[in-house]
Amino acid sequence: MSRSSSVGDYLFEPHAPVSIPIARGGLFAVRRVYCVGRNYAEHIKEMGNDVRDAPFFFAKPADAVVVGGASIPYPPQTSDFQHEIELVVAIGKEGSDIAVGDALDHVYGYAAGLDMTRRDLQAVAKKAGRPWEMSKSFDHSAPIGTIEPASTIGHPDKGAIRFSVNGTVRQTGNLNEQIWSVAESIAYLSQFVTLKAGDLIMTGTPAGVSAVMRGDVLEGSIEGVGSVKTTII
Q1: CA dist., res. 68 & res. 57, Å (int)
Q2: Start-end of H helices in 92-145
Q3: Is 12 part of a structural domain of the chain?
Q4: Could you tell me where the DSSP H helices lie in 26-181?
Q5: Is it the case that residue 46 has pLDDT exceeding 60?
Q6: What is the domain-level CATH number for residue 157?
Q7: Where does the pLDDT of residue 51 fall: very low under 50, low under 70, confident under 90, or very high at 90 and above?
Q8: What contacts 178, CB < 8 A, 6 or more positions away?
Q9: How many domains does the chain have?
Q10: 9-35 burial, b for 16+ CB within 10 Å, e for fewer?
């Protein structure tokens, strides 16, 4: 027999939901964060891999999200902490086995985000055939800017991507260089999991990833979408 729960039933107070500001008001409550691996050909080459036949995904916990330009700490257990600027897709409608032609109907909006990576730990995991979680899914590893609703900006399929460290440009690219479009990524992912309102999809990074240090100011922007900024402390 089941019964409804009250706060007093929990061993400890439930954690507050993670949320991202929406342009012109409101908050987007985050459920899950999915990330597309290797979605720009030049980045695939710089990482020493071949262009893949199908996309693959890894995940970050919702509480890895950092908003409002807040600073992030240099993480432990790494000496090669790297940046990846990405278009972030905010899902606003539930669906599974979604057709490519219907995929954009499930998008609420878009933002600019950073997939921060402990690259040395990732290299060790790859070599050993182990999971990537400790290189990708750690605390404060997903700074994300304000979400712009698709009803305002549409569904960008082209636009310049730019990322700088301390004012020096490190990454440049264009959304039209994605191997798998937003619609294709949504459709493919939805074959494996049911996407729900509150899910985020980080869609991969262009070439130019490199290490950052304590004190560095990280700034990224995507034309027609927005910006993201953080400082490493």
Answers
A1: 26
A2: 119-128, 133-136
A3: no
A4: 41-46, 119-128, 133-136, 150-153
A5: no
A6: 3.90.850.10
A7: low
A8: 39, 40, 203, 204
A9: 1
A10: eeeeeeeeebbbbbeeeeebebebbbb
Which residue range is the domain that position 113 belongs to? 17-231
Q: How many helices (H) and strands (E) does the chain have?
A: 5, 16
Residue 2 lies in a domain: no
215 in any annotated domain: yes
| Segment 68-113, tens digit of pLDDT | 999 999 999 999 999 999 999 999 999 999 999 999 999 999 999 9
Half-sphere exposure of 122 (CA within 13 A, CB side): 15
Q: Residue 173 is inside which H or E element, if any?
A: strand 168-174
Q: What is the DSSP letter of 183?
A: H
C-alpha 180/C-alpha 87 separation (Å) is: 12
Please, are residues 70 and 232 in contact by the beta-carbon 8 Å criterion? Answer: no
Angstrom distance (rounded) from CA 186 to CA 4: 34
Local confidence band at 65 (pLDDT 50, 70, 90 cut-offs):
very high
CA 117 to CA 77: how far, in whole Å? 12
CA 163/CA 161 separation, integer angstroms: 7
Residue 80 located in a structural domain: yes
